[in-house]
Structures are given as structure tokens and as C-alpha cells.
Amino acid sequence: MMAALPFGPGALTFIGLYLLSLLYLGWRGRQAQQENTLKDFYLAGSGIGFAVLVFTLYATQYSGNTLFGFTGNAHKNGFGWLVSVHFMTAIIVCYLLFAPWLHRLAKKHSFITPADYLTHRFSSTPISALASVVMIVAAANYLLAQLIAMGTAVEVLLVFDVAQGTIPDDAATRHTAHMAFIIGVVLLTIIMLAYETLGGFRAVAWTDAIQGVILVVGFLVLLGLVINRLGSPGDAVAMLAKSKEKLIQPPDTKGAWTWLSWILVVGIGGALYPQAIQRIYAANSSNSLRKSLAVMAFMPLFTTLFALLVGVIGAAQQYDLAKDTYLLPAIMRDIMASSLAGYCLVVVLVAAIMAALMSTADSVLLIISAMITKDLYSRFVNPDASEAQLTRLGKWISLAVVVLMAGLAVGLYHFRDNNILITLMKLKFEMLLQLAPGFILGLHWKNLPSRAVFAGMCVGLLVAVGLYLGRLGGFNFYSQTGVHEGVWGLLANLVVVIGFILLTTETQRAQRSN
User: Fold this and answer.
1) pTM score above 0.70
2) CA 395 to each of CA 94, 400, 404: distance values in angstroms, whole numbers, following the listed order
3) For 140-154, what is each residue's pLDDT tens digit?
4) Cα–Cα dist 87/32, whole Å
């Protein structure tokens, strides 16, 4: 059995130095600490400038799923997965609907967590508490997914057999694969926790900046190597026209509705990621935020589009794979075997994969810690706790959360392909979508009542989660309609909000007339 990526001492040294550099940045972040406060630990004090902001936004938005999952989806669905470029662009469009206004309020009122804005705007404990719980649950699912992806990446990269298109099924290899998975989860988690605990948001933002640069380089390298080794996108289209014409066809009517649904779910849900809102707060000026979002608008062209083209080219090459997500390791192994230059460039790409996974996981872990510490503990358990106490507690919460999630990731090793786990991972978008009225309408509709927002949020969550969990019982509403359950939940949410306002207005008119 041949390992997928036969790394030598040079490759391992390069990756080891990269991981050590993250620890160094964590130490530097600790040295740069100005005060022992929540604002300093979770938002880097006065904030971060344009260059760091744009790369931390980029590294947080694009995870390892973009490299493995998006190439795999493109391999399976062809140009039907072009919707990924649109929904990643839609995230930036949604940012522009609320980010500039939210940033100004955050600087004026010293917001730390997303719920701080909701508390300021609506003065409603139920809204703030429910939104915090939704965001913590969504972020915890996302963190668990990233930790599983860390272990899976190490496992697949080291044990995947290109000739068989899968991980060999003999007992010895299964044990090796399992150990590789555990090492990937534990080692990368320890490094991530170390630099985050040392330097807080500064360390996370600085490491994200490094990881973002590596990720951009990785995507450029990936597409260049694939075109050089396997042919151009034009060649792939010509080959698919003869063998897999369906992969180059435009979507039908139902497919078009599904595209629109994807754009709404990921566009709105992705913009409302709690770690994304944290970065809006952390921008040191409105100008830095505005320029960062302008740059981010072009990133899907250099990220998701590149992943799409790699997947399409791979589909034309007729790779025999047990899973579509194995496409990238198979291509990387071919490239490594082709030349010394190919070997060296794939090592950079492996570093990019690790960067993508860790940059997303560290951001999610940090905001979970902030929300539990400030939104739950400080508000409901110990309102008199000092800033120093809360900052120290936040670090312990990060440790507890990551140990729990890493334990779950290792424990779920044999259930990674279980539909229940996949359902829980994808549920985050359906849930986050229901926070849109509070954040977006709340900023622009000054008379929006808190009771309407809370009622709409509750109904939207019930509809979205209820329909989504219906998949467990065999009732897949999404497959029948082509529209995600979260979109139906958001529609119900908005109907309740508007209906509540109309009913309240009519009642007030009747009372005045009497």
C-alpha cells in the first residue's frame, strides 16, 4: 500500500516550521497585550488595520471544506456547482447591508459579542439570550466539523491509496488511518489552543493573516499545477461534452430555485457567522472595513472558482474514487510524482489545507469563548465579575470547549458519514438565517418592536429546524421543493414580524379611535 503523499524530511520540516511560527505569533500577541480586559483579549484593543483585517476575514470565510468539499462537489456536479461562486459573493453583499452601521455602533458602545448589539438595540433579554444560544450551537457545530476535518485531512493525506480510490480496508491500515486521524485532531488542536490562549484575538488575526496568504498561494498553485498536469478547463469541457454532458448543462427550473436558495442561505447565514461579526467589531476604522469588504468581493474568483475548475478538470479525467472528496488527494499524489517542483508545490498546498482548517477553527473557538463568558456567565451567573476575572475565565472556557469538541471528534470517528452528524453540521445555516431580521432590519427600521423580532425568531427557528430534522424521518422537504428549510423558516419569520407589526398598529388605531 502506498501513502497518498510520501513526505520526506524536507517537507515535514517545512510544515513543522510553519506550525511553530503560529506559536511564535501567539507569544508575540501576548507581548502586545495592553490590558487584561475582554476588549483587549477578544478584539485586540483598538482593533486591527486593513491588511490584517482582509486576510483574517478571508481565512475565516474559507475553510478546508473549500479545498476538499468544493472540489469534490464540482467533481460530482460539474458546472452546477458554479453556485458556490455566487453564494460566497452574496456573503459580501449581505455584509454591505449591515456591517458599516454595525461597526459604527460597536465602536461607540464598545460591543464585544454579537448579542451586545441586540441588547443595545432591543433591550430584550429573551432576544439576546436566544440569539446567543443559536450562535453558540451553530458555532459549536462548525468547530466540531473543523476538528473532524483536521483529523480527516491528516488521515486521507497520509493513508489514501490512489490506485484504489479509497483508504484500504485491511485491519492494519484501518488502525493506521485511525491513529492518523487522532494525531491530526490532537496535534493541530493543541497548537491552535496554545497560540489563541497566549495572544487572544491578536494572535488569531495575525495567524489568520499568515494562513490567508498561504491559502491564496495554495489556490493559485493548485490550479496552475492541475492545468499543467491534466489540461485546461476548455479541454475538460470538450471531454465532458463527450462523456458526461450533464456536468456542463445549465440548471433546470427546480435547479434555478435551488441556486437562489443556496445564495440566500449561505449569503445571509455566512454574513451572520458570530466570528464574522466579531471581525466587523474589530476593524480599527470604517475605512479599513470598507476597503476590506471591497477586496473580499473579488476573493470568490480566486478561491471558489479555482476549486470549481479543479473539480471539473478532475471529472474529465475519470478518476476512480470511492468518494468525491478524495479527488484532491488523488490529484496531489499525481502532481507530487511528476517532478521535484510538483513535490515542493504540493507541500505548500498541504500547508494551505492546514491553514484553512486552523484559521476557521481558531476563530470559531474564540467567539464561542466570548459568548459563553460575556453573554451567559457575566449576564446571568456573575454580573459583578471583573474584566480580569472574565478574561481569565474565557481562556479556561476555550480549553473546556476545545477538549469537549476534540473528544467528540475522536469519538465520532466511525460515524463521520452518518446522516445525523451531517444534518447537525449543516443545520447552522438554517438557524443563523433566522437572526437576519434582528441584525439587518433592526439597524434600518428604527421602530421595529422587540416583541415582533422575538416572535419571528422563535417561529422561524421552529419551522427551519422542524423541517430540517424531518429528514431523519424520511421527509426531505428540501429535495421536494429545491428550497432550503432555512429559507422557509426565514419567510415564516418575516411573515410573523410584519403581521405582528400590522396587528399592533391596527390595535393602536382602534384604541385611539375609542
Assistant:
1) yes
2) 32, 9, 14
3) 988 888 888 888 777
4) 37
**Rg, C-alpha atoms of the chain:** 23
Angstrom distance (rounded) from CA 314 to CA 302: 18
Q: Helices in 110-170 by DSSP H: which ranges? A: 114-122, 125-159
Query: What is the DSSP-derived secondary structure letter of residue 413?
Result: G
In this structure, are residues 328 and 75 in contact, taking their beta carbons and an 8 Å threshold?
no
Q: Please give the grid coordinates belonging to residue 175.
A: 488502525
Residue 417 pLDDT > 80: no
Torsion, Cα 119 120 124 129, to 10 degrees, reads -10
* CA-wise closest residue to 158 among 374, 405, 356, 336: 336
- Adjacent-strand bridge partners of 161: 166
**106, 281 contact by CB (below 8 A):** yes
Helices marked H in 283-339: 286-296, 299-302, 304-316, 327-338
Asked if 227 and 310 count as a contact pair (C-beta separation under 8 A), the reply is no
What gap in Å lies between CA 289 and CA 57, rounded to an integer?
10
